[in-house]
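User: Can you help me understand a structure? I only have the sequence.
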Amino acid sequence: MNEPKQSVEELEGHLRSARSRFQKSQEAIEQAHGDDVKREFKAAWSGLLAAERALSKAKGEQYAETIDYPYQWDLGAPYPHLLQSEDRAFLAYLMPEDVPDWQWTYLTVVVEFFPCLAAKLGSPNDEVFEGHPLHGRGLEGYRAQEVHNSEWLKEIKRINSVHSQYSPTSYSDVRHFAFWFHDSSVECLAKSYSVEVYREGIADVLKRICDNFVEG
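Assistant: Let's start by predicting it. Here is the structure, written out as tokens:
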């Protein structure tokens, strides 16, 4: 059975409760570090994000939802690079690999977005995520996310709507992806993406991508 649809007022109440719970969990984890406290903090954080997304969705606003993406980048220094042409974009970054004897190595991950409508790399970094329009609407730092009801995509559609052969359906399967890094963020409008992992340095992989652009 489908759950009954909740009103905006009810969802706003859930969000207030979720914020209160998260605030209490923050205060608790500053004073203690036991497993129970950590579990409650994680649960409160997840509950807050869920409440933010539910309310934004009900109001028809944009919101960010974390996608199933196992290629977690190095949190401190992922060195993201974005290379793009008119319809292709490649995001490359470093992913740590835990190997025996406590040695760390780095793999280079390449995400290809296709076909790419638009892409950008730059601000904000993790110190100012709170200033991003998606803050309070499901934004989760250091994660790969998809933005629903994207304002960026709406802007692109408005610009293109002046064309005599404009068709809204041509944008129906375009998705807004966001990757929140330590010192920067990457956002891309594309229909899909694929991922390749290389046991090579990022400089060699970037050269290969550039060669692929020229040859392809």
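Now, to help you interpret it: The mean pLDDT is 92. The first strand starts at residue 63 and ends at 66. Let me know which part you'd like to focus on.
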